[in-house]
Amino acid sequence: MSTKNLLALAVVAVSLAGCRVGPNYVKPDVPTAPTFKEGDTWKTATPNDAMAHGKWWEMYGDPQLNALEEQIDPANQTLKQAEANFRASRSVIKLNRADMSPTLSVDPTLGATRVTPNAPYRGNLTADNGQGNFILPLDLNYEVDLWGRIRRSITAAQETTQAFAADLETARLSLHAELALDYFNLRSADAQKKLLDETVAAYSDALQLTIDRADGGVAPQSDVAQARTQLQQALVQSTEVTIARAQFEHAIAVLTGKPPAQLTVAANPLTQQTPALPGIPAVLPSELLERRPDIATEERLMAAANEQIGIAKSAFYPRLNLAATVGFQGSSVLNWFTWPSRVWAVSPLISQTVFDAGRRRARTDIAIAQYDSHVASYRQSALDAFQQVEDNLVALKQLETEAQQQRDATVSAEEALGLFRTRYEGGVDTYLQVITSQTIALQNQRNEIDILRRRLDASVLLVKAVGGGWNVSQLPKV
């Protein structure tokens, strides 16, 4: 092939290399509403600096929680795994970008051969003095990206890397929320334990009272048995709470990258004043799509799947590879690198699959189906996010009312217990009525603590549902 023909081929290859087959990516629409149904009582955080900077847990004003949350990022192993996956995906981009450049390789050969006259079937030939073969080739191989296959592979790798980055943020948000939930459950267990310890002390006094009354012949021995049973049941509940409290502490230790034996969280019972329920920045459903890292993951995977359609369609078109070799070949070391020993060769290769029994069509159909699957997954993730926000908004709204209702019920139960205890001591009522009122009062007191825990849990889950302080603009530019 002449130099002119090679130049013409190169011009054609470069002009075709700007082409791309396959669909351009357009983000699909998501069914949404202008506002959240339960958002009419949304209390906006003021100020919301902690939310904006991602440290949303600081809104609760709990130094112990803040200290524990700060230990997650440098030590949590699940987070380290997600970060390693992200780093690996960045290297995949480099791997695909390498296909845009030619591959150069060197394969030197040094050798000499002497033929013997005694070799079989050589006849009367005489021996020669040997022959040297010294080769130093530099081989070049380059695929011209005529139809955008390589460029789409790079784009797909970039979008997949952004999906891994969003996965990392999803893991970070989930882990911080999980720790907050475990922490508030632990503090709720502390409050339950404090209440039960006080109840055990009160039941112990009541048991002593019934024993004294029975010894004085004022009360039957059945009252003693009932009082003792009530005390033992309270002790059982106290032990059960101790188990739950220890398990929450163990979970917090693992989240912060420690063996459970290395972490002890000081007891700190929940109260109605601490920690405070924070306000959370109000968002619109359309804004939620930009705030949730899990939705960003689905959107980036969808974009990558769109590129796979173009890659599959490029197989229907011819591929052009340019191969060239330059170097030196001599018969000895003395003439190896002389100008007459130079060698070169150029061999462009155009290949086109003529018949594959529908293999390329099947791969294209697979890519299209996988893209459609990602579209459905993206839309479902958005709908799930809308539901999570609505669920926790209504939970916060109704739990506020429920908390007041429970407070009233607890006050009434405590008043009733006091009345029945006084009437029993005065010999008016039986001890069964005291036990019944004790059980009702304790249940209402425990419910009050549990409602406070549920309100805190709902606020944490709402923060998680709106994406914490994250935004899609934080995805890395790769």
Shape: elongated
Report the CATH architecture: Up-down Bundle
Structural class: alpha+beta
Could you name the CATH topology?
Outer membrane efflux proteins (OEP)
CATH class: Mainly Alpha
Question: Percent range for helical residues?
Answer: 55-70%
Biggest sheet record:
5 strands, antiparallel
Distance between the termini: 41 Å
Portion in beta strands: 5-15%
Q: Average pLDDT across residues? A: 91
Spans where pLDDT lies below 50 across 5 or more residues: none
Describe the structure.
By secondary structure, the chain is an alpha+beta fold. Helix content is 59%, strand content 9%. It has one domain: Outer membrane efflux proteins (OEP) (Up-down Bundle). Strands 1, 2, 3, 4 and 5 form a 5-stranded antiparallel beta sheet that branches. Helix 6 runs antiparallel to helix 7. It is elongated. The two termini are 41 Å apart. It comes from Terriglobus albidus. It is found in: Cell membrane. It is a lipid-anchor. InterPro entries: MdtP/NodT-like, OMP_efflux.
